[in-house]
Design goal:
The protein has 311 residues and is mostly beta strands. A 14-stranded antiparallel barrel has the order 1-2-3-6-7-8-9-12-13-14-15-16-17-18. A two-stranded antiparallel sheet has the order 4-5. It starts with a helix and ends with a strand.
């Protein structure tokens, strides 16, 4: 915990760029869009909730919550013709280890290219991608009793952005997940995302959207889950995210989940109804499908659909 906090809080530009006045000062903004319909419908309060392959994105330490094998697929129709896709696989390694790999792709859609006089000369399609590989380990032996059951994770990430020219860089995500406290009802989490070198477009160097998250998840009842994350990005003001999920049994094997969330990050940025998210999920032991609905005020609507598999 001390090492992660030291790396982030003393990293280049952290203290000097934390605040709302630094919006838009980082590149690779697609890394902030959020993965998975379940997570997004819960307001992105997910760093202590993740228990499948998308944990690689939210908190790599949570990969240890995968029972055996897990896969996640997501498609998100975004603003206008842009879209956002994600695929990940996670697997348990023995008693205490787990690994995962994931691919993120964002397309801004087709745009018109013009010359210096404003004459159309063709079209281009800006797009971004990130490929991640991570490992997590749960402490079980040869550690002080107070540290037993904690999970620690790390993920390496290759990032590439293309407008007309391309730029690429590498980054690291780090995470910690606590064991379940209060008779298995509560977990705590810490996650750091996009700790890496700036991306260079020709002669311009632009920082990645480095962020720190503190998260918690609490089982209010057998079928009711609540979560909260506090986020500290270098290119915006700190924000709070709240989420809740309630499961309703449909059959002995299937259950329906209703979800709702709130995220303060967009409050004041967009006119109209924003900051609140909604979603539904239908799942059995091996399969699940989730849908998230995100009102973005005057900008429009965003939708996410995710499939999850456990095998």
């Amino acid at each position: 915990l001390g090492l992660i906090l030291a790396l982030v809080l003393t990293g280049p530009g952290w203290a000097s760029t934390l605040g709302s006045s630094y919006k838009g000062t980082t590149t690779a903004g697609f890394l902030k869009l959020g993965i998975g319909a379940r997570a997004m419908s819960m307001g992105e309060a997910y760093s202590a909730v993740a228990d499948e392959a998308s944990a690689l994105y939210w908190n790599p330490a949570a990969l240890t919550r995968i029972p055996k094998h897990s896969a996640t697929l997501m498609h998100a129709a975004y603003i206008d013709s842009s879209f956002f896709d994600y695929a990940a696989y996670g697997q348990r390694l023995g008693v205490s280890g787990a690994w995962g790999a994931g691919l993120t792709y964002f397309s801004a859609g087709q745009m018109t290219e013009t010359d210096a006089t404003g004459t159309e000369v063709g079209t281009f399609s800006p797009h971004d991608l990130a490929f991640s590989v991570g490992y997590a380990h749960e402490t079980r032996e040869n550690v002080p009793a107070v540290m037993t059951g904690y999970s620690f994770g790390i993920a390496g990430k290759y990032i590439r952005s293309t407008i007309l020219d391309s730029a690429q860089t590498w980054a690291v995500d780090l995470g910690i997940l606590s064991p379940a406290y209060l008779d298995g009802k509560m977990r705590l989490a810490l996650a750091v995302a996009n700790l890496g070198e700036p991306m260079r477009f020709e002669q311009e160097r632009e920082e990645l959207p480095l962020s720190l998250r503190l998260g918690s998840a609490f089982k209010v009842g057998k079928r009711w889950l609540a979560s909260m994350d506090l986020g500290f990005p270098t290119d915006n003001a700190p924000f709070a995210a709240l989420g809740t999920e309630y499961q309703i049994p449909v059959t002995d094997d299937w259950h329906l989940s209703g979800r709702m969330g709130f995220n303060s990050r967009t409050i004041g940025d967009i006119d109209g109804f924003t900051g609140v998210s909604f979603g539904l999920g239908l799942a059995c032991h091996e399969y699940g499908v989730s849908y998230a609905f995100l009102p973005l005020g005057s900008v429009g609507l965003a939708h996410r659909i995710s499939l999850s598999f456990r095998f």
